[in-house]
Inverse folding.
């Protein structure tokens, strides 16, 4: 695995995830979402029959009314950008502080998405089927992927660099990784980073065609699993160089070179990403206290991830996936999973850290190695620092693993 | 100022398919073409048939740029404003008509499809990026390439940018000249070798931006034109800040 080891001498510079805003099917704020994660609340999924022809499926749809995109930014008016605004409002005060301290030109934006405003384009095209022309309220910026970062930059008024990563389901994790590098290269003093994805017929239809969607819900690691549930949401962080609080301590990345829509069955790509993150953070595997699985509930994901996790960590490390609660939020998932790890660290009590429970039917798949799947109410002892890991494995074989840590206060 | 050395480049546009053709174009530039895509015969035929025109252009530029360099050793960064959006739009029309989407077509039109197919075609298992930034997709791609180079200086970064004209009915929605093109640059740290062209890069604030060249071809090709010239400095205007390159 040495070929994947990072020798980046700057990796140990502080990189604080200073503030978090988030929204998904579980709630409109971190304060609403976190208790529902800990309680394994699966009641928030919605059944819809309008997204995939002839299929009635569960979706992790946001329940809350979304903010209105300002009239001056109408060209960016789509549900995806409204979700980003809803997440941003929760960190508005901290971002304003960064503006005051550093100036607009020293603040960057790095976002991830896999859908952008595709749902707005779907509505515009349906309108064209009826009337012969695209809906008048449709702008190309609602559809193009680069608008996810450009909208947030315009909304905030930053004049630092802004761009959007779109590497399928690892987009959100990669956005945090590139944001960290912008700080390390001293191109920015703070970066607003994260990811947003919104439900649309194109992605739902595509995943359904690939045979990846479940009828009954995400049941990762069970012999009864039958695929994933799609969701939507956003998670945004303010990232800076302070040495206190929750840190982004390690990043590991790899590509599969295997198949356009399936990972290497031996899990080499997954293993390389996790090992790379440990190397980058200068940590041994036993320093990791909890691992947030990619855990989509597809057979291929389960096989690859379970084998790679056991090979690197053995069977004792507590692991779980929240996708049974929120659905798989695709490009946003990497940022939302990082947000879940952030909440676990930020809200840890003296001596112990409460872990998100794994939601499944308990029917172990004999073909998988045994994993320590965390249960409701389970805690793990904190360390100094306490390190947790999160995996994101994207379509097209694009993997990214992050390590977050927090020292005892 | 962040320095990097461009140790190889390659570009493809309709009618501009050799280094000599590009050098001639750089000396006497004209609006580049909008139709056509390279054959990309280096791809297995089954895979080649499924690739979108953009994928064939970007992978052709990528492999031409690498030449004898081991394709497994580089960290790829793919940037495109539109990606394979035309194929996505045709799938959106199927969605509107409640038709089933082809899983293969879906897989080949995600924004990181070119990165995935490069990895598949070359056996490359390194970290790869796929990004976009509206009209500044080349410029942001260069920035992400520097980000990746800084993360692991011992590995060259292969930056590949490209776009195709938007489908009829959508092209009129944007204020940008239509072009079909791909450009690949191999970036290495300045101290890595003595070949190629050493360039400094910075992002000046908006009030320090240079004059807008407002070229009728993509900014990636304006960059190539400058790189092949004797001029000392290139300024491209951005929505939030400028993009500046200096010959070192």
């Amino acid at each position: 695995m040495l070929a994947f080891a990072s020798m980046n001498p700057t990796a140990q510079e502080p990189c604080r995830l200073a503030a978090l805003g988030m929204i998904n099917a579980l709630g409109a704020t971190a304060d609403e979402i976190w208790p529902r994660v800990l309680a394994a609340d699966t009641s928030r999924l919605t059944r819809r029959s309008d997204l995939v022809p002839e299929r009635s499926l569960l979706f992790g749809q946001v329940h809350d009314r979304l903010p209105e995109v300002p009239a001056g930014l109408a060209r960016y008016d789509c549900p995806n950008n409204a979700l980003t605004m809803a997440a941003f409002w929760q960190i508005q005060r901290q971002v304003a502080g960064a503006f005051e301290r550093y100036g607009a030109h020293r603040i960057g934006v790095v976002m991830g998405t896999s859908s952008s405003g595709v749902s707005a384009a779907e509505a515009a095209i349906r309108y064209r089927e009826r009337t012969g022309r695209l809906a008048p309220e449709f702008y190309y910026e609602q559809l193009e992927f680069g608008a996810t970062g450009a909208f947030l930059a315009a909304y905030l008024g930053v004049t630092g660099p802004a761009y959007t990563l779109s590497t399928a389901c690892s987009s959100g994790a990669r956005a945090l990784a590139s944001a960290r590098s912008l700080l390390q290269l001293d191109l920015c003093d703070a970066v607003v980073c994260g990811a947003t994805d919104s439900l649309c017929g194109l992605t739902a239809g595509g995943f359904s065609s690939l045979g990846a969607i479940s009828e009954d819900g995400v049941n990762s690691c069970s012999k009864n699993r039958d695929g994933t549930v799609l969701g939507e949401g956003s998670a945004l962080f303010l990232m800076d160089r302070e040495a206190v609080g929750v840190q982004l301590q390690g990043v590991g990345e790899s590509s599969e070179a295997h198949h356009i829509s399936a990972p290497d069955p031996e899990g080499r790509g997954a293993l390389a990403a996790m090992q790379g993150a440990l190397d980058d953070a200068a940590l041994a595997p036993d320093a990791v206290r909890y691992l947030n699985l990619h855990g989509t509930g597809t057979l291929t994901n389960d096989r690859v991830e379970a084998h790679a996790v056991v090979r690197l960590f053995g069977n004792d490390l507590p692991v779980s996936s929240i996708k049974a609660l929120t659905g798989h939020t695709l490009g946003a998932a990497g940022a939302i999973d990082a947000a879940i790890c952030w909440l676990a660290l930020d809200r840890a009590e003296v001596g112990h850290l409460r872990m998100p429970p794994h939601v499944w039917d308990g029917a172990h798949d004999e073909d998988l190695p045994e994993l320590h799947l965390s249960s409701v109410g389970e805690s793990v002892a904190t360390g100094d620092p306490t390190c947790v890991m999160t995996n994101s494995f994207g379509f097209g074989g694009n993997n990214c693993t992050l390590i977050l840590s927090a020292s005892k206060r | 100022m962040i320095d990097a050395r461009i140790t190889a480049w390659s570009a493809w546009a309709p009618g501009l398919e050799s280094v000599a053709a590009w050098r001639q174009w750089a000396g006497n530039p004209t609006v580049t073409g909008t139709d056509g895509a390279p054959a990309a015969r280096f791809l297995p035929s089954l895979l080649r048939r499924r690739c979108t025109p953009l994928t064939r252009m970007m992978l052709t530029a990528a492999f031409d740029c690498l030449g004898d360099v081991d394709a497994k050793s580089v960290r790829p960064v793919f940037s495109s404003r539109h990606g394979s959006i035309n194929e996505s739009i045709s799938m959106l029309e199927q969605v509107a008509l409640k038709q089933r989407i082809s899983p293969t077509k879906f897989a080949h039109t995600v924004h990181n499809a070119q990165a995935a197919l490069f990895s598949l075609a070359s056996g490359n298992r390194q970290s790869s990026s796929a990004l976009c930034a509206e009209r500044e997709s080349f410029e942001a791609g260069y920035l992400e390439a520097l980000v990746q180079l800084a993360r692991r200086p011992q590995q060259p970064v292969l930056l590949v940018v490209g776009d195709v004209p938007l489908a009829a009915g959508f092209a009129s929605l944007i204020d940008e000249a239509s072009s079909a093109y791909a450009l690949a640059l191999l970036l290495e740290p300045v101290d890595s070798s003595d070949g190629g062209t050493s360039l400094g890069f910075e992002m000046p604030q908006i009030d320090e931006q240079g004059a807008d060249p407002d070229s009728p071809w993509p900014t990636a090709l304006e960059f190539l034109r400058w790189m092949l010239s004797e001029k000392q400095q290139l300024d491209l205007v951005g929505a939030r800040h400028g993009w500046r390159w200096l010959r070192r």
